Amino acid sequence: MRLTAVTPARPVPLDRIDLYDPARYRSGEQHPAWHTLRAQAPLWAQHTPEGDRFWSVTSYADVSRVLMDDRRFSSAHGTILAVARGDSAGGRTINLMDQPHHASVRLPSMRTMATRLVRERREIVRGHVRRILGEHLASGEPVDFARLMLQLPMAGVGEIIGIPVVDWPAVPRWAMAGVAPSDPEYATGSEADTLRNAHHELMALFAGLIADRRRTRRDDLISVLLDLDYLGRRLDEHELLLNCYSFAMGAITTTPQVASHMVLAFADRPAAYRAVRENPALVPDAIEEALRWASPTNHLMRRTLTRVQVAGQWLDEGELVCAWVGSANRDEKVFTDPYTFDPARSPNPHLAFGVGAHRCIGGPAAQVVLAVLLEELVATCAGFEVAGEVVHLHSNFINGITRLPVRARSAVREGVTR
After folding, report:
1. 270 closest CA partner among 399, 371, 405, 409
2. Single pTM value for the model
């Protein structure tokens, strides 16, 4: 989705707003619509093509409230609009569990995905990032940065999850096909065929890894899942597969999009990139701004567990509520100049990782790998230029870029020092 760089000049007529259509995210932008809804219709009803009604919340306060309140808003039915009629994995995998089931999987897993462990691996991650970048940017020739960045999440969490390096090149494409099966970049036939192929490949991979860990435990998430106490029992085979799949999908489908949107923002705003190069201490703040700016997860869906008031209106039990994270991260009541990409923005209470019990468990890993990437870029690249058409992902869920041809200017060649 194209990211609006100025405050929308005029409201969008409500009857022209469509937050479901994935094509609108590939060919246009939704920020003007979100801006209008925050001002005019903070709770807004729409139907999916199949006729299922969902209510949208777009303000920071309402999005936060829906995601925080896991007693009234359930994740077990499904968390994305694509499964508005219910996810077949509901209640069996970490992202589709309510309490106490969710905590029984999340808490042991957090010890493996913890910030401390990730930070201890920072130089290992740096080695992987340097290998991914290679000489692509130093050559001065155009490179498709979006395709290059598909490997980035593996540098951060591949070994932590337990995915062998030999499988890293294939896994991201399967994962992206799983969330955007209608996108031409990842389609392998019809949407149903693409989903079937992606799920088969990923499940086959994890089935083999689970069998290996049953024989020999390792210091990775798969081994943790095998041994965790799930309310007095072990996860069964299908639950193990689903949770491995969920952990991988959460990291793989989002981190590359933040990296691509960040480089595109820097290409469009040379002064912002120059500010980070001249003051590398800005890297952590710049990464938080990239996360806010990109908001790689457009929305998260919940289902009401009881009659509940949302944005001043009452909803009955069983209603679908879609929390638009991308909109919340542009809320003028929270962020000064929200349509400005400011690498020095602070504070920056963005919701890119969600909030509450379901806050992204891989957030610390993403922050580290993105920071390492930016450190490597500012050390070697004087700037970026877009060298062709930028193509966005056909998805209402992931705010992605599938093609980002850029030419990097070499800091060494130009004699530019920090």
Report:
1. 409
2. 0.96
CATH number for position 339 = 1.10.630.10
- Assigned domain for 6 exists: no
How far apart are the C-alpha atoms of 201 and 205, rounded to whole Å?
Answer: 6
Of residues 392, 394, 149, 100, the one with CA closest to residue 258: 149
Burial class (CB in 10 A: 0-12, 13-18, 19+), 289: buried
Separation CA 219–CA 136 (nearest Å): 33
Tell me the CA distances in angstroms from 366 to 39, 83, 88, one per residue in order. Answer: 32, 26, 28
Closest CA to 304 of 53, 72, 48: 72
Residue range(s) defining the domain that contains residue 129: 14-90+97-414
Q: Find all residues with CB under 8 Å of 293, minimum gap 6, and list them.
A: 3, 261, 262, 265, 329, 341
Distance CA 343, CA 339 (A): 13
Task: Say how far apart CA 418 and CA 213 lie, in whole Å.
Answer: 46
Within a domain: residue 2?
no
Closest CA to 101 of 234, 224, 230, 228: 230
Quote the CA–CA distance of 226 and 234 in Å, as a whole number. Answer: 7
Of 66-75, 107-116, 274-283, 367-376, give the lowest mean pLDDT range.
107-116
The residue to which tokens 């130089």 are assigned? 123
Cα–Cα distance measured from residue 67 to residue 187, given in angstroms and rounded to the nearest whole number: 31
| Residue 115 in this model has a pLDDT that exceeds 70 | no
In a domain, 1, yes or no: no
Closest C-alpha to 383, from 273, 290, 254: 273
Q: How many domains does the chain have?
A: 1
Does residue 115 lie in a domain region? yes
